[in-house]
Design a protein that fits this description.
Length: 762
Amino acid sequence: MGYQKHFLTFLISLVLTRLITGSEALESLVIASHCTSECGGITIPYPFGIEEGCYYKDKDEPSLYPSMKITCNHTFSPPRPIHGTDIQILNISLQEGEVSFNNEVSYQCDKPYWFSYNSINTNTFTISSSKNKFVATGCDTYAWFKGKRYGKNYSTGCMTTCNEIDDVLVNGNICNGVGCCEASVPDGVTNIRINAYSFENHTLVTSNPCSVAYIVANDAFYFSPQNLTQNLSYYLNEQPSAPIIYNWGIGTKNCSEAEKEGSRFLCKSNTNCITLTHEQDGLDGYRCNCSEGYSGNPYLPQGCQDINECKRENDCERPEYCTNTDGSYYCQCPKGYHGNGTQTDRCISSSKTWLTPVIITAGIGGSIIILLVVGFLLHWRKGERRIKKLRESFFRQNGGLILHQKLSRMDALKIFTAQDLENATDKYNEMKIIGRGGYGIVYKGIIANNQLVAIKRSLKVDPGQVEQFINEILILSQINNRNVVRLLGCCLETEVPLLVYEYINNGTLYDHLNDEAKAPLFTWNIRLRIASEVAEVLSYLHTTISTPIIHRDMKSMNILLDECYTAKVADFGASRLVPVDQEQLATMVLGTLGYLDPEYMQTSELTEKSDVYSFGVVLVELLTSKKALSYQRPEVERCLAMHFLLKMKEDRLFDIIDKNIANSQGDIEQIKKVANLAKWCLFLKGEDRPTMKEVATELEGIKRMNKHPWQDAKLSFDQENDCEYLLRGIPKDDDGNSGSYSGKDSDLYKRPGFISSLGGGR
C-alpha cells in the first residue's frame, strides 16, 4: 500500500510538472490558433497583438498592459493598425526592436489665424535618437520640442528666417537654417509636445503663411521650398503627417533578472537576449533575437527555426557537398576525393593519374580558356537580364502600366524604347544639347524618317510626381491645335521619364522679350499676332474640347516660337481637366509667382479666370518687354502687373511701354486697346474678368483695325513675307535649320512634365 501511495504521488507530481513545463507549448498553440497576424497589410507579430491574450502583458507593471495592444480600425480602407487612441502604426520590427508611427505635424497659420499642436503620449516607447530628427520649416518660424526625459522636463527647439522664398536654395534631406532648421532628438524622451510659432505673424515675408514643426524619421525627410507656400486649407484638407521611429522592449528587468522568471522569460529556444540601455535605447528591459543560423519570431516557443544554409548561398564547392546541421552546416567531399569541399579547399581525386605533365598542362590551359569564355557569356547574359529587369522596374515606377493602358487607343503617341532615344541623340552626346536648366537637359535628336525632335531629360525625379508626369501626357494627347507644341511620345524605361516633342527652333517668348539683340525684329504686329494665337489656344482649351482644360501655368516661358514667330503653347504638367458640371476646383495652389491669380492664391479655388489673369500678365510683358517679377527693380516696380495697373490709373501708360513699339504712331491706338484689355484681364475678382473667348475675339478685332475689308485675303501671304523678313535676322544652326536657342530654354524643356514650383520664380 505504501508503495502504491508513493507511486501515485510521483505520478501526480510528474503530471503537474508536465503541465507547468508544457505551458509554453500551450501558449504557442493559443497564439497561433486565434490571433490576427496582420492589419491593412501591416504584419502584427507577437509580443504585439490585437485580440485579448495575443499580446504581451507585464504582470509586475500593470501600466504596461496597453503598450503591446494594437487596434485594427476597419473604418478605413484598407484597415489601419492603431496604437492607443489614434496613433497609426506603419511598421513593427522584431530584429531592431522598433515601431514606426504616423504622426500629424504642428502648425501655426495666419490670414486667417489658426494653429494646431501635436502631442505624442507613449509612456513605454521612447523615440529613437539615432533615427529621427526635429524639424521646423518657414521663413518666420521658431518651434519647441518638449517632453519627459527620465522623469524630468526636457525641451529643445530651433528657428529659421528668410527675407523671401527665393532665398531658400536647399532642396533635399538637409536643412541649412534658411527656410528649414533641425535639432537632434535625445534618447529616452516620452510624452512629447510640439509647437510651432511665428515671430512677426508672417507679415514680413510673402507667400509663407504658415510655420510648421514635426519629428520625422531621418530617411523619410525631404524638404522643398514649395513646402513654404502651403496655406491653411492645405493643412486642414490634406492633414500631412510624418513617420517617427520608436524603440520598444520587454518589461523593465535586464536579461539576467528576467531569465530567473522561468516561463515568463520571453527569449525562448535558439535565441539571444539583449539588455537595453538608456545610452543606446533610452529605456529599460530586454529584447530577443534569433541566434545565428536561426530565423523567425524569438518571442514564441519554437519561434526560431533552423536555417537550411544548403538551400542558400554557401561556401561549398557544389550543392551536393553541403550537409545542413542544427544552426549551421558543413562541406564534405564524396568518397574517393580529398579536401573539405569548400570553394577555397576543393575536392580533388585521390586516385593516381596516368596523364603526362604535358597533357595535364594542356588540359588545365584549355579548361581555363573554356571557363573564361563561359564566364564571360554568363556575365554578359546576367548583365543583359539585369538591364532588362532594371528597365522593367523603371517602366513600372514611372507609371508605364497605367499610361500604356490609357494610351492603348491613341495611335498618335508612341512609347519609345531607351535604345531608340540613345540612337536619336548619339548616346546623349553633349554636342546634341540645345538647352540646359535647373531641372534638366534638352537634346536635339533625329528619330525615324529623319524627323527632328526635342527630347526632354530631367536631372532628377520625385517618385511622388509620377501622377503629374502622366497628367501632362494625357492632357497633351487630347489637344489638337496648331499653336500647341505637339507631344510625339515618351520613354519610360529610364530612371527618369523622357518626353519627345516636336522640335521648335526659335526659343521662347520670354527669350525674345528680354534680349536686346532680338528686340528690333520683334515688331508690334508680331507681338499682337502672338497674343492673338495664345488667346485662341486658351479659348480652345476652355470651351472647344469635350472636357475643358485649365493650363494653370500660363507665362512667357511656356510660349515657344518657331522661325516664323508662330506661338506654340507648352508645359501642361500643372494643368487640370475640369468636369463639365464643375465651374471651379479646390486645389493646392500651383503656378509661378508674378503670374498667379490673387483670388486663386487666397481661396485655392481654381477657375478658368485664373488663366485669364495669367494671360493678362503675358499681355503686359508683350507691351513692356519687362519681366513679370524681378527683385532687381525698385520695390514699387517689382511686380509688373501691379506697376502696370498703377501707371494705367495715373494715365501714364507710355511711361512703361517698350520704346521699340511706342515709336510707331500707326500702332498707338492698337496699343491702347490691348493695354485696356490687359487691365480687364487683371481685375482682382475673377467674375469681373472676361472669358478667354471674349479676349480672343477682342484681340482679333484689334488686329483688323486700319485694314481694308479685302486685305484679309492677303493675310497668309503677308505672314509669309513677315517670316522671310524675320529669317534674315536668324542664323542657321549646324544642321541648316533656322533659329537657335539663346541658352534660356523653355520650362517645357527643363522638366519631364512635372508641376511648377511656387518658389521657383521662373
